[in-house]
Amino acid sequence: MLENIEINPLLERLPPHLKQFIKPQNYELYTYQDQAVWRHVMRKNVDFLSKVAHGSYLDGLKKTGISIDNIPSMYGMNRILKEIGWAAVAVDGFIPPAAFMEFQAYKILVIAADIRKLDNIEYTPAPDIIHEAAGHAPIIASPDYAEYLRRFGEIGSKAISSAHDHEMYEAVRKISILKETRSEKQNPELDKEIAAAEANIERLQNKDVEPSEMSLIRNLHWWTVEYGLVGTLDNPKLYGAGLLSSLGESKSCLEPVVEKRPYTIDAAYQDFDITRKQPHLYVTPNFATLSEVLEEFANTMAVRKGGHRGLQKLINSKSLGTIELSTGLQISGHFTRMITNDDNEVVFFETTGESALAYREKELIGHGRSTHKNGFLSPLGKLKGINLAIEDMGPRDLQAYNFYDNERIEFTYESGIKVEGLNVTGQRNLNGKLMLIQFTDCTVTYKDEILFSPENGMLNLAVGKEIVSAYAGPADYYSFDLVFHESDTKTIKPVFSKREITIQGLYEKVRNYREENKINKPLLEKLKSQVENEYPEQWLLVEEIDELIG
């Protein structure tokens, strides 16, 4: 996938599960009409945005290799972006939010290679190269904003999603594709599909579900990266890509009818509708404030708080996630169960299916999916009647409490969970804290329930007083085969009719006249008359001809 992209060290660092989303740009598939659409939007935008956009916009266009006259190529963008420490890749429409944010964490701009059709020239619900390249790219010329974008990706990629999030993602992807489908005439079947897709989105939006971390941080992303304003409430400047790439909304957003709100963490709890213009927008005084609010929100996330709430979020998500214990031991898998005590502290947890153990994001040797193919479980907490936590015990402490290698041992946690088995060995972290103990012929019980029995094999007991972090995805991405994502909805590539092919030929002819500086007014007047009579909907072609006629 990377053979046609200018070599950029950032691209080489990408893990396989992100590389799977990279698609060839196929620059040769852009039509002459596509080039005219790009040129029209950019000429209008640059003229208007030079007055109302953040100060880094114009300089950013140059620094990111974006010209007014031609759709940018990934090759050219990467050659120039490399100088400011970023890169760019082409993808197919919307990709999952977690993947999008993780690309940002690697300082890589994700660019949907398609371009909006003429009917949607002012605004498109689908991500396209105008939105991604001309909207997102220029503002990263501001170092404060670029760091915010990177940090947002780092934090956002750890946000825990829900099944509802995935449904919403597929629904939004579908409607954006349908609305951007090329068609030269009325299509009742397509209209029906769009109506059904809109009804499905409305159903999902009205569904009474508790917002997940991903849905909340996605709101923050929308109200900043996509639709953010910066400055004062009375005189804001545009920096959000959705505004910078929309001919219509870049102007209408500044009108008094659009409410301007001070940007705070409250924006995380304000939903949005991707298919309509925004009735309100948030204004940050500067880009540093964006980072402050992001850190404030991150302090509410399970990745920093851990505990029973964090683990419960992972259980509810039914997706691959990770918990980290106070010893630094990381357990990745699909979490299905926990037991808590009266103080809501987790005293037992369990995963199902393939799981893996890691430390500092690196899989522990011998503790990958093949070892833990049927899941992983362990009690947590302190031992009953012993003030010293297991993780804080040195070799002499362990001997004092009869934790001898190759000796049978029985002990009880404060929670009442009992462990009895043959102690084989232990494993410590870099700080010398015990984080894993192996037992054979082992039984774990809680009240009248057997949680683990000898026929289950070897017990790998996780050592830790508490869960300090919980987040989406594995600790070590190489522990799991994550190269599998295929959206249920595919983008629709245009198939041109004879009429449309003829129109493309006219756009080509006009472009060649301009580039070769062949200004034959009588010939151009005749061509204009032909377009107006035979192709009255091609107003952009008429505009291109008028520009040459003067």
UniProtKB/TrEMBL annotation:
By its UniProt entry, which Pfam families does this protein fall under? Biopterin_H
Q: Which InterPro entries match?
A: ArAA_hydroxylase, ArAA_hydroxylase_sf, Aro-AA_hydroxylase_C_sf, Aromatic-AA_hydroxylase_C
Q: Which cofactor does it need?
A: Fe(2+)
Q: Does the keyword Iron apply?
A: yes
Q: Name one GO biological process term.
A: aromatic amino acid metabolic process
Q: Is Nucleus there in the keyword field?
A: no
Q: Which parts of the sequence belong to the Biopterin-dependent aromatic amino acid hydroxylase family profile domain?
A: 1-347
Keyword set for this entry?
Iron, Metal-binding, Monooxygenase, Oxidoreductase
Q: Which GO terms describe its molecular function?
A: iron ion binding; oxidoreductase activity, acting on paired donors, with incorporation or reduction of molecular oxygen, reduced pteridine as one donor, and incorporation of one atom of oxygen
- Residues bound to Fe cation are H131, H136, E226
In the record, the note on similarity to other proteins reads:
Belongs to the biopterin-dependent aromatic amino acid hydroxylase family.
Which PANTHER family did the record assign? AROMATIC AMINO ACID HYDROXYLASE, PHENYLALANINE-4-HYDROXYLASE
Q: Which NCBIfam families does this one have? A: PRK14056.1 (NF010657)
Name this protein carries in UniProt: Phenylalanine 4-monooxygenase
What organism does the record attribute this protein to?
Answer: Nonlabens ulvanivorans
